[in-house]
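WARN  no MSA supplied for this record, continuing single-sequence
INFO  ligand: nicotinamide-adenine-dinucleotide
INFO  echoing inputs
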Amino acid sequence: MSLSGKVAVITGAGQGIGEGYAKGLARIGCKVAVADINAEQGGRVATEIRKAGGEAVFVQVDVSSEESAGALAQQVKDKYGAIHYLVNNAAMFGNLDFNPLMSVDLGYLNKVVAVNMLGSVVMTRACVPHMGQGAAIVNQSSTAAWMNYDYYSFTKLATNGITCVLARELGPKGIRVNAIAPGPTDTQALRAKVPEEYLKGMVAQMPLGRLGTPDDLLKALVFLLSEDAGWITGLIMNVDGGQWMRA
Ligand SMILES: NC(=O)c1ccc[n+]([C@@H]2O[C@H](COP(=O)([O-])OP(=O)(O)OC[C@H]3O[C@@H](n4cnc5c(N)ncnc54)[C@H](O)[C@@H]3O)[C@@H](O)[C@H]2O)c1
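INFO  complex generated
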């Protein structure tokens, strides 16, 4: 599964799961574009990767903006010559306000949809002109997609649909598109959003009985990006300790 020398754009890589993805891919030899709206955190991650001997550049991006996504793709192409992998991990999650659908401000809801749902489309449209045969895209979904809790859930359900539509459209170009649907994964954002007691209850009902880690997800990401997954596209892969089983 050699990904060495490949160029990977990872959105939302300034912290949490995206940081784990960026550092993990850099460790196995990818040239990594750490793409995040948060310049301080994104810059920190890129610097840490370089200090550890890896190759990384920080590029600030707002995944909901075509202009910003286009500028990022051009910058990565200019620096590294091509884009081989795109990981659409950014979302409003740690900083998300959870409100009832009946009363949430519509402007705010539109922003959540633009980032969590359409951000992957905007980023894919920006990057694909610089990608070729053998390239791969992985979108970050969630088991929340099937739980219908709130608007976060339906943006992730739409991410699954978007993944399949893009897999159809980009298959003929030799570009595969899959998604990872993580269960509860131990990040600062999860701890901030989900009360400890509720988390304990969730974990108690999961067959594998523990929270996931960014490293659990990284292993699935490396597989989906690699040629070992060369005949897999349009897959929504649960990586969730058995939290959500679909028969
Ligand atoms: N942690 C979990 O339990 C869990 C479970 C399932 C899915 N997920 C998904 O995994 C991803 C990462 O989760 P996390 O726990 O690391 O969350 P997080 O909130 O820590 O990370 C999200 C990152 O996205 C960035 N971001 C937000 N809006 C952006 C924008 N418009 N443009 C660019 N970057 C933007 C943030 O700055 C942040 O660095 C998210 O897509 C989340 O929905 C997380």
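Residues 11-12, 14-18, 36-38, 41, 61-64, 89-94, 115, 140, 142, 182, 184-185, 187-190 surround nicotinamide-adenine-dinucleotide (CB under 6 Å).
INFO  checksum written, moving to next record
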